[in-house]
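cron nightly-structures :: item 1 of 1
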Amino acid sequence: MTQQTVADVMTPSPTTVDITDTLRTVAQTMAEQDIGALVVRAGTAAVGIVTDRDLVVRGLAAGLATDTPVQQLVTGQVVTVGHTDPVETAVEVMRKAAVRRVPVLDGDTLVGIVSIGDLALERDPTSALADISRSEPNR
């Protein structure tokens, strides 16, 4: 049996925003795509992830204007995994960095995103997290 790789469980071709895009643009993109997290890039390089919670807690609640660049919400060094890395590597990277989503790279190219939900579906399909991850969004 071959070892499962990140490419086997990731969401391919994630939606991205540029580091210069405004918080309004980021929020509109999330609404249009019905997703809660976007990869933030500077040019072609993944430099972070912004979530709907970031927009509310670190943006709106902190008094940032809607025309503020998303760069102000992206902090620190983004952690990534390679598409050929074993799934266990993604688990360990996420655990050590205490993050829920990680961009997936092929060399320097963004090819996907992997979340704790993706990993739960694969590693423990009967878990509550897997059930939640599998279900349709509730509006």
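cron nightly-structures :: done
The chain is about 35% helix and 25% strand.
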